[in-house]
Design brief:
The structure holds two protein chains of two kinds. Chain A is of the alpha+beta class. Chain A is 35% helix and 24% strand. Chain A has three domains: 47 residues, Uridine Diphospho-n-acetylenolpyruvylglucosamine Reductase, domain 2 (2-Layer Sandwich), CATH 3.30.43; 111 residues, Uridine Diphospho-n-acetylenolpyruvylglucosamine Reductase, domain 3 (2-Layer Sandwich), CATH 3.30.465; 108 residues, Enolase-like, domain 1 (2-Layer Sandwich), CATH 3.30.390.50. Chain A contains eleven helices and 14 strands. In chain A, a hairpin with a 2-residue loop joins strand 8 and strand 9. In chain A, helix 10 packs across helix 11. Chain A starts with 6 loop residues before the first strand and ends with a helix. In chain A, 53% of the residues are buried. Chain B is an alpha+beta fold. Chain B folds into two domains: 76 residues, Roll (Ubiquitin-like (UB roll)); 67 residues, [2Fe-2S]-binding domain (DNA polymerase, domain 1), CATH 1.10.150.120. Helices cover 33% and strands 16% of the residues of chain B. Chain B has a five-stranded mixed beta sheet with strand order 2-1-5-3-4, with helices on both faces. Classes of the chains: A alpha+beta, B alpha+beta. At the A-B interface, helix 2 and helix 6 of A face strand 4, helix 3 and helix 4 of B.
């Protein structure tokens, strides 16, 4: 189908974009990569009266070192995250996860700010933002990723608020990562995925973070798994404990593609694999 | 009535100016305004890949991009590759390996492959299949397309 009619505005600066959003509020939608927005327009599931195209805002397109971590501009494309040497050095899991996001033609256009704002519960970047305790910078201030995702396609963003950057705090030394996703075909939406970071010292896990997606209304932090790992020696029993706690932490819905039980089972398996991979990389 | 916009695009090396409605998709602009019907329109929501073109050198779905966004951009469609009597190397590989039957998906397949061959090693069939997973073909069974891409990857 074709979109319903709208007016098109192309601001030249972040300030101008924010001003336009304030002026038009709920009548406007921000157009970044458009890989989620334009299908919704074509289906006429959304009928905004104004599109604010931020694709020319070069000031939002950057990947920078930031206190051992990274600052990433909202307009940074998925393919840039996949290939940026700085991302590969600081957060190789972020680069690796991008291979699971749709396909090259989509990754060439889709942006990190768009993915976070769209807040699909089965999207990789929102899950990684939660896992890595990211801060999401906007035209109005900052949000902790923890309180940012409120429901499916629902965030804490105000109607006139524009995501401008994401800040990923540095990882402690001896921290390894795991990213495990299950989908029927490469690039399809995942049935489930689990990501983990594990910090190791002398055979013990000193800090662990786990997050899951596709199994709830928002990406989830698996705090019960994290609590059970911290301070413990890595053993097969501990891996089994992580999987059990992960299964107990989620209550996925059933749909045509996968049942509740299958998704819960997957979360256990993916948690085991993510923990083992993260532990191995932490050594 | 929404405001129309004047845009200047470079499509397959040809610069032209047009007045477009904001909601006009790039896929429809190429086909209806420019008469470049090589770009096919399948699902119109980014899934099938038939409308894949290069925007400023990178593959993208023309159905998920507005013509008005193309102002100042360089677009390449399947018509930029070769002609019936003078196929590009990739088109020739598709012909040689029987990588098309009805041809509906072929323009999108070709433009996808141009970008895949530039950006990825495509060192084995798994990588080639992962790349081609972005485009649907309902008649070849994909095997012959994989062969064509394998041949091109080996030639680089």
């Amino acid at each position: 189908m074709k979109p319903a009619a709208f007016d098109y505005l192309r601001p030249e600066s972040v300030d101008e974009a924010a001003t336009l959003l304030t002026e038009y509020g709920g009548d406007a939608k921000v157009l970044a990569g458009g890989q989620s927005l334009v299908p919704l327009l074509n289906f006429r599931m959304l009928r905004p009266s104004i599109l604010i195209d931020i694709n020319r805002l070069a000031a939002l397109d950057f990947v920078e070192e930031h206190g051992g971590g990274l600052r990433i501009g909202a307009l940074t494309r998925h393919h840039t995250l996949e290939t940026s040497p700085l991302v590969r050095e600081r957060f190789p899991m972020l680069a690796a996860a991008m291979a699971h996001v749709a396909h090259l033609a989509i990754r060439n256009r889709g942006t990190i700010g768009g993915s976070l704002s769209h807040a699909d519960p089965a999207a990789e970047l929102p899950m990684l933002a939660r896992l890595l305790d990211a801060e999401i910078g906007t035209s109005a201030g900052r949000h902790a990723a923890d309180g940012f995702f409120l429901g499916p396609l629902t965030t804490a963003l105000a109607e006139d608020e524009l995501v401008t950057e994401i800040v990923l705090p540095s990882l402690p030394s001896k921290t390894g990562w795991g990213f495990e996703e299950f989908s029927l075909r490469v690039g399809d939406f995942a049935f489930a995925a689990v990501a983990a970071t594990v910090t190791a010292e002398g055979g013990k896990i000193t800090k662990a973070r786990f997050a899951a997606m596709g199994v709830g209304e928002t990406p989830l932090r698996l705090r019960a798994v994290e609590a059970a790992m911290t301070g413990n020696i890595f053993t097969p029993n501990l891996v089994a404990e992580a999987a059990q706690r992960a299964r107990d932490s989620v209550d996925p819905s059933s749909d045509l593609r996968a049942s509740t039980d299958f998704r819960r089972h997957l979360v256990g398996v993916l948690t085991e694999r993510a923990l083992e991979a993260a532990w191995a990389r932490a050594q | 009535m929404t405001k129309a916009h004047r845009i200047k695009t470079t499509v397959n090396g040809v610069i032209s100016e047009h007045t477009v409605e904001p909601r006009l998709l790039l896929s429809d602009f190429l086909r209806q305004e420019l008469g470049l019907t090589g770009t096919h329109v399948g699902c119109e929501h980014g899934v099938c890949g038939a409308c894949t073109v290069l925007i400023d050198g990178h593959s993208a779905r023309a159905c998920l991009f507005l013509a008005v966004q193309a102002d100042g951009s360089r677009i390449e469609t399947v018509e930029s590759l070769g002609e019936v009597d003078n196929l590009s190397a990739l088109q020739e590989a598709f012909r040689e390996h029987h990588a098309l039957q009805c041809g509906f998906c072929t323009p999108g397949m070709l433009m996808t492959c141009v970008d895949l061959l530039r950006k990825y090693p495509l060192a084995n069939d798994d990588e080639i299949r992962d790349g081609l997973a972005s485009n649907l073909c309902r008649c070849t069974g994909y095997e012959h397309i994989v062969r064509a891409v394998r041949a091109m990857a080996a030639k680089r």
